[in-house]
Structure formats: structure tokens, C-alpha cells
């Protein structure tokens, strides 16, 4: 029996000797707020339709909206729990996903610039996003749900590591 495993790794989405840093759980509240902003008008319209028309069967639609909201809340909690990043000597790892998992490895020497973003809702929840840009769009990565201080620290660290790696070329 042959093994295609790379020495030193336990599986593709969880390399050995990597300490993962999870994102802030406040990202759950931000994503659920966006969900509520979209689903509340739909719920109100379906309830209004059921009341005005008077058909008992029309109450199925508001119930479906509530079930959809509960399912989204469950999925968002799991999705946010699956997002993490790890800084290594030569690259940054970003993993996400439950069903469709992904692991992005961004070499510091390939980074062109690093953005930190926080819209009004993100600022309200005390979180920010770090966007890493490389020469190839396929290796660019984003980390949502970071506390602002951690986002600024990560931005500065990634920028300095990227410059150091480029200077060594």
C-alpha cells in the first residue's frame, strides 16, 4: 500500500505543527444581522399576505422564512467556527469551510499589498477584514472577523514580511 501523503502533514486542510488562530465570534453577530436585514422584510410581507388574503395555507410561507432563518443561523455559527489563519515562517495559511473546505497558502514573497477594511456594520461589531493581494488573484486571501488591533498587527506584520522576502530575491 502506497501513501501519497506529504511527510510532516496530517491532512490537506490541517498541516502538522500549525497553530491556528480563530477569527472573532463577533463575526457571527455581524453575519446574522445581515441575514435579519434581508429576511425581516420577507417575513413581514409573507405575514401581511397571509393576514390580508386569509388563507390558512398561506401561513406556510412565513413558517418557511422562519425555518430558513434558523437554518442560516446554525450554518453561520458553524462557518465562523471553521475560519482560522496561521502565520508560518514563509507563508500565511487561511482555512475556511465545513462542507466545501479550502486552505489558501499565501507566500510572503508573493504579497504585493495588504488591505484592512471595516464597514459600518463591522465597526459596530468591533471587527475588521484583512485582504492579502498577490501577483496572482488565485492566491489572494481574505480574513474576515478580526479584532481591529489584530487586523492592524497582521497588516503590518504581513507587509514587513513581504518586503523582507522581496528584498531577498
Automatic annotation (TrEMBL):
PANTHER family: TRANSMEMBRANE PROTEIN-RELATED, UPF0699 TRANSMEMBRANE PROTEIN YDBS. This is PH domain-containing protein. It comes from the Bacteria. The chain crosses the membrane at residues 32-51, 57-76. Keywords: Membrane, Transmembrane, Transmembrane helix. Residues 84-157 form the YdbS-like PH domain. InterPro entries: YdbS-like_PH. The keyword Disulfide bond does not apply.
Amino acid at each position: 500500500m502506497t501513501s501519497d501523503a506529504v511527510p510532516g502533514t496530517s491532512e490537506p486542510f490541517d498541516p502538522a505543527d500549525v497553530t491556528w488562530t480563530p477569527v472573532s465570534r463577533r463575526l457571527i453577530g455581524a453575519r446574522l444581522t445581515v441575514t435579519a436585514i434581508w429576511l425581516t422584510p420577507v417575513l413581514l410581507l409573507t405575514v401581511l399576505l397571509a393576514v390580508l388574503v386569509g388563507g390558512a395555507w398561506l401561513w406556510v410561507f412565513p413558517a418557511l422564512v422562519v425555518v430558513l432563518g434558523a437554518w442560516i443561523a446554525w450554518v453561520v455559527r458553524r462557518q465562523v467556527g471553521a475560519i482560522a489563519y496561521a502565520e508560518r515562517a514563509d507563508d500565511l495559511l487561511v482555512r475556511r469551510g465545513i462542507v466545501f473546505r479550502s486552505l489558501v497558502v499565501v507566500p510572503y514573497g508573493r504579497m504585493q499589498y495588504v488591505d484592512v477594511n471595516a464597514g459600518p456594520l463591522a465597526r459596530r461589531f468591533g471587527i475588521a477584514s484583512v485582504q492579502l493581494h498577490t501577483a496572482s488573484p488565485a492566491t489572494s486571501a481574505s480574513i474576515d472577523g478580526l479584532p481591529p488591533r489584530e487586523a492592524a498587527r497582521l497588516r503590518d506584520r504581513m507587509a514587513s514580511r513581504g518586503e523582507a522576502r522581496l528584498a531577498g530575491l
